[in-house]
Amino acid sequence: MTKPNARTIAALLAVLLVAAVAYFGAIALLARNADKPEPTVTAYAHGKSITVQPYLYCGVRMDDCRVLPQEDIGLPAQLTCPEGENCHTGQSNDLEVPAGYPLQLSLPKEVIDSPWLIVALYRTPDGQILENQLTHRDFDEGTAAVTIPSVPKLPLVGVEIQLPILTRDMATGQEGYMPHAAWSVRTQV
């Protein structure tokens, strides 16, 4: 048996190096093309926190939805999944917030870096629902944590975080907005 010479060893090392680069390159390519999970919001109240998945998550053109609402939420557009994709169903999340206690929300980068709004719903003593809208303009730029107050006589019923887009009704010319992404928390369970 003969000893391998320096050329043979160099050739074997080169083959091993090419194989390693190909292997790790394939892993990096697969990881890059893997589906990114939808961003989540963390909600905290009265000693308990939950992770809130979106119940609606579409691109700004409403043509590439990955999460569709479980029930009809009255959007003017017919939402569909991209061809060949499997969308999943989103729903509201429950977190009990006793009257008088605040709800704290931790917003992900995808929300912070976009124009966003929060719709907070309160129940009056006579059972009516009041709506209060907060936008990214109500907070310092880049705010990642938001506190939604509640008082004993006006308990918080629910909160919806939305990434809105402008819309126009082509028949009437009326403009408004609708969310292309939304997270929902029911606080009176």
Secondary-structure topology with pairs:
Blueprint: H1 6-33, E1 41-45, E2 48-52, E3 56-57, E4 67-69, E5 88-90, E6 93-94, E7 103-106, H2 109-112, E8 117-123, E9 129-135, E10 145-148, E11 156-168, E12 175-186
Parallel strand pairs: 4-5, 6-12
Antiparallel strand pairs: 1-2, 1-7, 3-12, 7-10, 8-9, 8-11, 11-12
Quick take:
This protein is an alpha+beta fold. Helices cover 17% and strands 35% of the residues.
User: What characterizes the major β-sheet?
Assistant: 6 strands, mixed
Mean pLDDT equals: 82
Provide the β-strand percentage band: 35-45%
SSE string, helices as H and strands as E:
HEEEEEEEHEEEEE
Figure out the total of helices: 2
Spans of 5+ residues with little confidence (pLDDT < 50)? Answer: 28-34
What form results from the Cα inertia axes? extended
Number of strands: 12
Binned, the helix content reads 10-25%
How would you explain this protein's 3D organization?
The N and C termini lie far apart (80 Å). The strands form three sheets. Strands 3, 6, 8, 9, 11 and 12 form a six-stranded mixed β-sheet that branches. A four-stranded antiparallel β-sheet has the order 2-1-7-10, with no helix packed on it. Strand 8 and strand 9 form a beta hairpin. The protein has helices spanning 6-33, 109-112, and strands at residues 41-45, 48-52, 56-57, 67-69, 88-90, 93-94, 103-106, 117-123, 129-135, 145-148, 156-168, 175-186. The protein is 17% helix and 35% strand.
